[in-house]
Design brief:
Pfam families: SurE. By secondary structure, this protein is α/β, with parallel strands linked by helices. Helices cover 23% and strands 27% of the residues.
Length: 266
């Protein structure tokens, strides 16, 4: 990483180009000394995971130049595509020079447990790891809660420390930071956390018959079961910001080895 040039950070999210959390993260990255470029979905793309869907006209996807409040001179683009598509495009020739790191967020609402698989915020960070870039997904608050005045400053307070961890890590490292939506003075110490089994929210889907046809109706609710100790869900509920290293899809040998399969099952 030693170089006389500034490191370049691609800032993206899944809440869309007009999210104040995106501006907050871009501002924090700029203040940390990064050369910043912003590219985010033109509309909300929450819950798309690692999708590389884009609105295409033949083989083209529209990109709209934007100027973000408080960030004069910072290149910013609203892209008619999902967060992971934006990251992959950056690694397939769109951005020159390519980013050194990808920072995704600040998401409104925590991304916890193995349910991070469905998060577009996390999906962008995991896509960056596939390109060999370090990446950080940043989320603020609790699931199912949309605060009137999010404490973006609490996430930014932790950003320099977490960026130091990220930049000291090997290439392709992907980290997920969840921060309680409280004032800086009320933050408990940052803790490393393992992923909870499901996160703190469970979705139930009901089949509903109506006059206009059959529907699937989703209901989200926080889990009433006890929280697993030392998981991201439990620590965040206790007021701790949490940091978790994530791994993308990988293979594991031994699928045709009957003894290995029995050991896994046992």
């Amino acid at each position: 990483m030693a170089s006389s040039r500034r490191l370049r950070a691609l800032i993206t999210n899944d809440d869309g180009i007009d999210s104040p959390g995106l501006v907050a993260l871009a501002t924090g990255a700029r203040d940390a000394g990064f050369d910043v470029v912003v590219a985010a979905p033109h509309v909300d793309a929450s819950g798309v995971g690692g999708s590389v869907l884009a609105i295409r006209e033949d083989d083209r996807t529209r990109v709209h130049r934007r100027e973000l409040p408080g960030l004069p001179g910072v290149p910013a683009f609203a892209v008619e595509g999902h967060p992971a598509y934006i990251v992959h495009s950056a690694g397939r020739g769109w951005l020159d020079p390519e980013p050194d790191v990808v920072l995704s967020g600040i998401n409104i609402g925590a991304n916890l447990g193995h349910s991070v698989l469905h998060s577009g915020t996390v999906g962008a960070a995991l896509a960056a790891g596939l390109h060999g870039w370090r990446a950080l997904a940043v989320s603020l608050g609790r699931p199912l809660v949309s605060p009137e005045r999010p404490h973006w400053e609490s996430a930014l307070h932790l950003l320099p420390e977490v960026l130091d961890v990220l930049l000291a890590a090997p290439d392709a490292t992907v980290l997920s930071l969840n921060v309680p939506d409280v004032p800086v003075a009320e933050l408990s110490p940052l803790r490393e956390a393992r992923l909870a089994k499901f996160g703190s929210v469970r979705v139930r889907v009901d089949h509903v018959e109506g006059e206009d046809g059959d529907l699937l109706r989703s209901h989200e609710a926080e889990l009433a079961t006890p929280l697993e100790p030392d998981t991201d869900t439990a620590l965040l509920a206790a007021g701790h910001p949490t940091l978790t290293e994530l791994q993308s899809v990988s293979d594991r040998p031994g699928v045709l080895d009957g003894g290995e399969l029995r050991r896994r099952a046992g």
